[in-house]
Each structure stands twice: as C-alpha cells, then as structure tokens.
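Below is how a single chain appears once it has passed through the pipeline. First comes the sequence as given, then the structure the pipeline wrote out for it. We keep one example in the README because the format questions we get most often are answered faster by looking than by reading.
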Amino acid sequence: MPETDTIQEPQPATPAIRGTLHKFLPLPVMPQHAKWFEAGPVTMALELRVLDDGQGRPGERSISIHVFDAARTRECVRFDCFDRFPHYHYILNKAQNNIVWGYDTDANGPMLDWSFDAIRNRLPAFLRRAGEDQLADEVEREGLDTSVVDRIRRAIDDWEPSLPSEDAMAEAMDWYRQWKKAHPQFNTAAGQEFL
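Resulting structure:
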C-alpha cells in the first residue's frame, strides 16, 4: 500500500487590525490653547500640539482637529495630523472609550488634506462610527458649514511657527500628568483591544 503524505491545513490568516479600542478617553483638548470654529451642528477646535521629546523639551509639532457637538460638551472625532504617527480617533462618549486608527500617508497622501476631505464629505459617517447617530442626522438635515475647512486652513497657514514658552510647556506637562493620574492606563497597553 503506498504511503500517502498528509496535507497540513494552512494557518488561518490573521485578521487585519481595524483600529485599536482604548478603554479610556484620549487626552482632552486644552480649550484655552485652541482656536474654535462653529460649523452649524458641530463646533471644531484647532489645536497646535507640541509633543514633549521625553526630556521636557519641545519635540514634534502637530495639528489636531477636534470635532465637538455645537455646545462643545462632547468631542466626537479627532484628527491628529502628526508627522511621526498620524492617526484619528472615534470617541465613544457613552462607553468612555475611543478607537484609534493609524493613517497611511504613503497610500492616502498628507493627512491634513485627507482630514479636510473627510470633514467636508464624510463627517456624518465618522460621527455614526463614534456612536453619535443623532448628531450625524443633524449634520445631514441642517448641513455643515463647509467654509469651516477654509477657515481652519487659513488659521493653520497664519499660525506663528514659534516654540511654546517654558511656562506653556510646563502647563501642558501638568495637563498631561493630571490626565494620566486620573486615567493611569492612558498610553499603555492596558485597556486596549485590537478590532
């Protein structure tokens, strides 16, 4: 009787990561350092973030665009247009969680341009993904003042490229430490799941 080779079943494919669920909210906007833009049912905050280099000195500078409800009581979506790790957040306010999606600049081009396109053309879909169905319906029903994109672009272009003062860096670090104290799992592997 001939010997038959046994065929091994291939390993199942690893599912692609569809975002990372963090079981905490992201570091909130520093409202006193943001520029605010009303756009109908939503309000947006533009924040120039200067990330710490790990030694208390200014590191990477980046733009964050925060999408809130009109009353500014709930942040729903955030676009962090960082150079080193661009990403965006769906902020799940009811669960007090957020989902972070990395952004691929090689495939999609500059994140800031992509973010503006997403705001102009797909904001209701982003809001629904964040569990904000009612707000998405309002945006569809009432319309979005899309001139907000041009106003934000002008504010970015007019922003002075200066580094923050030592006082401003200390204020930001204190802001971060207070958030980290209240949410010790922030920026750790604890409390995250890959979707």
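The mean pLDDT is 84.

See the next section for the split statistics.
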